[in-house]
Specification:
The complex is a heterodimer of chains A (about 475) and B (about 450). Chain A is an alpha+beta fold and about 475 residues long. Chain A folds into three domains: about 100 residues, no CATH class; about 100 residues, PmbA/TldD superfamily (PmbA/TldD fold, 2-Layer Sandwich); about 230 residues, no CATH class. Helices cover about 20% and strands about 40% of the residues of chain A. Chain A has ten helices and 23 strands. In chain A, strands 1, 2, 3, 4, 5, 6 and 7 form a seven-stranded mixed β-sheet that branches. In chain A, strands 9, 10, 11, 14, 20, 21 and 22 form a seven-stranded mixed β-sheet that branches. In chain A, strand 10 and strand 11 form a beta hairpin. The mean pLDDT of chain A is about 95. Chain B is globular and about 70 Å long. In chain B, strands 1, 2, 3, 4, 5, 6 and 7 form a seven-stranded antiparallel β-sheet that branches. In chain B, strands 8-15-16-17-20 form a five-stranded mixed β-barrel. Chain B has a five-stranded mixed β-sheet with strand order 11-10-9-14-19, covered by helices on one side. Chain B is α+β, with helices and mostly antiparallel strands. In chain B, helix 4 runs parallel beside helix 5. Chain B is built from ten helices and 20 strands. The chains are: A alpha+beta (about 475), B alpha+beta (about 450). At the A-B interface, strand 1, strand 2, strand 3, helix 4 and strand 5 of A face strand 2, strand 3, helix 2, strand 4 and strand 6 of B.
Amino acid sequence: MSSLSNLFGQKFGLTERDLERYLAEALSKGGDYADLYFEYLATSSISLDESLVKSATQGVSLGVGIRVLSGERTGYAYSDDLSPDRILKAARTAACIASGPATEIVHGLKSGEKRDLYPVGVLAGDTPLEERVKLVKRADAAARAHDSRVFQVQAIYADSVRHVLVATSDGRLSTDVQPMARLNVAALAREGEGVPQRGYAGGGGRVGLEFFTGAHSPEAFAEDAARQAIVQLHAIDAPAGEMTVVLGPGWPGILLHEAVGHGLEADFNRKGVSAFSGRVGQQVASPLCTVVDDGTIAHRRGSLNVDDEGEPTQQNVLIENGILRGYLTDKLSARLSGGVSTGSGRRENYQHYPMPRMTNTFMLAGESDPEEIIKTVKNGIYCTNFGGGQVDITSGNFVFSASESFLIEDGKITSPVRGATLIGNGPEALKHVSMVGNDLKLDLGIGVCGKEGQSVPVGVGMPTIKIDHMTVGGTR
Amino acid sequence: MSEAILRDVASLAIRLAAERGATDAECTIAEGDEFSATVRLGEVETLKEAGSRAAGLRVLIGKRQGSSYTSDLTDEGVSQMVDAAIAIARITEEDPFAGLPEREELGQIDGDLKLAEADVAQVEASARIDAAKRAEATALGADPRITNSEGAGCETYTGCRVFANSRGFLGSYSSTTASLSVTPVAREGEQMERDYWHSISRSWAGLESPEDVGRKAAARALRRLGARKIETCKATVVFEPRVAKSILGHIFEAVTGEAIYRKSSFLLDKLNEKIAVDGLTLIDDATMPGFFGTSPFDDEGVPSRRTVIVENGVLKNYLYNTYSARKLGAKTTGNGSRGLTGAAGIGHGTLFIEPGTKTPEEIYAAVGTGLYVTELIGFGVNTVTGDYSRGAAGLWIEDGKLSYPVAEITIAGNLSDMLKNIIHIGSDLEFRGSTCAPTIAISDMTISGK
């Protein structure tokens, strides 16, 4: 039999017969289902510090992860050596989760319909390194030119291409080539001998180098990072206590990721350990809120043609007009709850088994004019940029840290305030959303989500929203 | 692969790099085997077993540097890694401070550091399952209000790390880790709370018993039930050891040579100044046998050592790798750290503060009224400005005793003030993991709630 037409066939001579042999070995002791996840990842990165391109790295890693499901049990093994002996050994190891007569696999692997959510002319990794070096140099120059108080700039450019192949014992074969590129800029500004302040900006996605123009140019990111650092130079202490919070559009959508997204991942709900468990059909947000997770948006950082179990991604409605509609499922949680996968099975790499994860999570636009929203607030805080966030999915309490915010006084945006953490409770916080703007924006493509030690790229988005009360963790 | 073979692979990479034009080179190889079992509600949920290895290379061509990595340790894979590093070095710029440690700085500390214990590799799969099951069963049986579990996990790991450079250094060491944890869920009415306990050791025998792990986890989850939100106020905050150690991490970040040469630290220009209360002594020690922060040499081939960072409140030392030391006219403190590839960053060994004399109970009594924090979430710490604001949960201290649970609040302040406002340091220092603190109490923090 001839080798497969993808990278694993060309480079490693992998054939369909090999895949079936490995799957059969994985189910040699029984079990309900097995899959193989082949991964080949090539990365490069370039970092600039103190106006010098100080270091650059490139490399490859590859391997195969083999999973066997038997009831609620998962057996997992992986190998970073793609020789048949090693793969068969890993398959036998994963097989040990079951104990019984062999389960028959479906012969004749079939591929699903192909789609291409991230066509790129030339992969970023195949463009001349000099072109990529220019991006960090331009970012450095622009950040420094923005304001003479900017005294430190770091810029990091990174790209990768991930080839994946998923073969399943129920006869599915999926392959994908997933590009990624990203540029990040950090700036430090200082006035005289005062305390330095920092600003961050960046963006990217499943894109080629052509992405980094216009609003995504190194200059645009650099100026935004520099601008944030400068604004912070005159920031006053953040207020403390419950108050009205207005979140700007785009990246502040991290609220949704923490407040509801994680709590709606099906593994937690299958086990009944999420604050959202058993609440489908209930009101968990104001009727103004509709929240979706959509892995099908072209070129987005969180998008995938197929998830890491070979299932096509889709748009999943999580909350519709305030009512909880459903969870994000992977194959295991779908199998155990009698449903179907929502295409949300993701993993960091071949060394990990998949679990339900978000892709691009955002709230649909409402009808309010963002300026009108600000005008309605007598005393409050307007947050436009955030660092990270975290959630305790069982109690539902979540935080996210504002890195750029301003006071709202008598309907006007006034003083910038220093960084502060906002805290709320997932199933409660969105009930206090009283206005939703008509200005939905997705973030620029820098999000990384961590869960149980696995990191995956994600996107978020939101229109401007007003939350009538939320606790702001300042000092004043 | 055996340690000897991995050492040969590293030596080959260094030799090929020199042959192909590198003026200096360093190669790191890491190999590891992991075995884990998780159980939930008494049933096995996952079993995982696998091994992997990878190599990273950094080359210098004069004052330019390039790095590469590969998971293919065949001769061909190593050869490609060398070519990739040399190719990418060409796009970097000359950095006058780039380079390896001086020959006389290289070396390793002698003696058995007890980083690898034979009993870890001998643990049977069934023993891991049994330990996890017993920990979970104990937690589930501790109280009727423990109604559910996120599961229990038991993991063993054996690894080997090799480092070689073109200035004659070749070293390697093995290490082992065993860990056991359980996350029970407590419920009362509509309220659900989870917490966990985690035991980690270099040896299998050194783990806390599964029953102890289960009991502690259950007690922690139970005491969170009935949590309320409190009014916004200023108060003394008592950090239990598990969360107090995060403050050590923030100080560490601010004393790295990297933060200092970038002028991005709230502790910039504070050497030999009083930055904290008298009783605070913070030490980084990578030489203590059997500890998680211990290694014979750092990730640049410099012998590990003990460095006093803060002594009785006075900032005594920053922590350097070779690069940041050269930038600042200092000497490396043996704190070079990296994953596999790239120039070394800065890491710590076992980072700890010396214990005080009061027991935790004596601290609660002395504080009278305040917040006892058992969990911190979020990333609201800025080590450039010292601004500190994190989500918290814990227990309110009333009449000198732990009383009712509180949640959905934040604690905020500035690290510069917080270090000077440490009013109690507990006697309860225990060494778990590589960052360790006793109970500490900090006055005048802002608690934001209702």
